[in-house]
From TrEMBL:
<feature type="domain" description="Peptidase M15C">
    <location>
        <begin position="277"/>
        <end position="354"/>
    </location>
</feature>
<dbReference type="GO" id="GO:0008233">
    <property type="term" value="F:peptidase activity"/>
</dbReference>
<dbReference type="Pfam" id="PF13539">
    <property type="entry name" value="Peptidase_M15_4"/>
</dbReference>
<dbReference type="InterPro" id="IPR009045">
    <property type="entry name" value="Zn_M74/Hedgehog-like"/>
</dbReference>
<protein>
    <submittedName>
        <fullName>M15 family metallopeptidase</fullName>
    </submittedName>
</protein>
<dbReference type="InterPro" id="IPR039561">
    <property type="entry name" value="Peptidase_M15C"/>
</dbReference>
Length: 373
């Protein structure tokens, strides 16, 4: 059995060192700008808590997704320190970004789930970043897969938890290069979706109590979205109801929002299934997503995979030609942690899912002055 430095073990080790008059050496806060770090230096959970005090203070003081204070913004490498709403990263670009920025992504998780994630840090023995959940489970970065120690060397078998940056605005034709456009039209793109692996679900078990169909269904709660009954994970019911309350209040004075609500004919929440044309489980399967289906959904330009059948240039269809919720509705959902599928490259304009970490990551990357606007 391999030895791990749990907080108890570390406390005992420190006590022994003190007894023998040996001064233990701990690292200063380990952030991306640190250089020439000794391999003999290691972090402990208690020390990590101290070094991450700024993040912990921020997360404890915010129960909604206000614009977060960016952390060490000047250390983000180009082009990400000028991140804008229309910055599109290809798969390889995003892989490079993820590999180089685990600190920022884990910080976003820490801010997004303050009651579920205790701290983050760097394990010098494992040579990897990690987070520790409130139940004491340590999960390693593992190239973005966020895995328990027993699985971290098999990271290629799993899907990264953050494999795209959530943009501030929907993509336009100018967001994509000709190479990007040709790729999305190719068989290679469709084949890659069919071969896409799934997440390793320990993280979601810690955040939402879900690992398989049985656990998902044990954690379902009924909600009414614009008067239509559906089911979602119990951990997202409160932020969802908070968003709906504000939207309904806005509808009392906004003709646009009232008319939008009146056009919704159905709401699709929990549904145990895979993503269409993929082997990866849908967020609907996890009860973390819902679709707002309009009355004329069959004649609307609403979902890329339906439109692709008859429109070759589906990727670059102008936004104004697609069905979409009012901007205020989107903003209210985002403020409460729900991202909108209409901002994806593979646009799904009826879709919302609970990913507060992506919104907070967007704010961290936008920079301090921009985040305060």
């Amino acid at each position: 059995m391999s030895r791990t430095h749990t907080p108890v073990n570390m406390a005992f080790l420190i006590l022994l060192l003190i007894c023998f008059s040996v001064k233990p050496v701990f690292s200063k806060p380990v952030f991306p700008e640190d250089e020439n770090i000794s391999e003999n230096t290691f972090s402990t959970e208690s020390e990590t808590k101290k070094t991450e005090s700024k993040i912990i203070t921020d997360k404890k003081n915010s129960n909604t997704l206000k614009k977060a204070e960016p952390l060490f913004q000047d250390q983000i490498e180009e082009p990400y320190n000028t991140f804008s709403g229309n910055t599109y990263l290809s798969y390889n670009d995003m892989k490079n970004f993820s590999d180089e920025n685990p600190f920022y992504i884990l910080s976003a998780f820490l801010l997004a789930y303050p009651d579920k994630i205790r701290t983050t840090g760097y394990d010098f023995r494992a040579k990897d970043w990690f987070l520790i959940t409130e139940s004491g489970v340590r999960l390693y970065w593992a190239k973005g897969r966020i895995l328990p120690e027993k699985s971290k060397d098999k990271y290629q078998e799993f899907k990264p938890y953050v494999f795209y940056l959530y943009p501030e605005t929907p993509y336009s034709k100018e967001s994509f290069s000709e190479k990007d456009i040709e790729y999305f039209k190719s068989d290679n793109f469709l084949n890659s979706r069919k071969q896409e692996p799934d997440y390793e679900f320990t993280l979601y078990e810690e955040l939402f109590g879900i690992r398989n169909r049985q656990s998902v269904e044990q954690n379902l709660e009924t909600v009414y979205i614009f008067g239509i009954k559906t089911s979602v994970n119990k951990n997202i019911r409160l932020p969802l109801e908070k968003a709906l309350e504000e939207i309904n209040r806005q509808a009392e004075t906004s003709k646009e929002i009232k008319e939008f609500i009146d056009t919704i004919s159905d709401v699709h929440g929990y549904n145990w299934r895979k993503i269409r044309d993929s082997d990866s489980m849908s967020y609907h399967s996890l009860a973390l997503a819902f679709d707002l289906v309009p009355k004329n959904w069959d004649i609307e330009t609403i979902y890329w995979n339906w439109t692709r059948v008859f429109e070759e240039d589906w990727l670059t269809i102008p936004f104004k030609e697609k069905w979409a919720p009012p901007e205020t509705v989107i903003e209210i959902f985002e403020k409460n942690g729900f991202i909108w599928g209409g901002k994806w490259d593979l646009w799904d304009n009826m879709h919302f899912e609970y990913r507060p970490e992506l919104i907070l990551l967007q704010n961290l990357l936008k920079g301090k002055e921009q985040a305060k606007k």
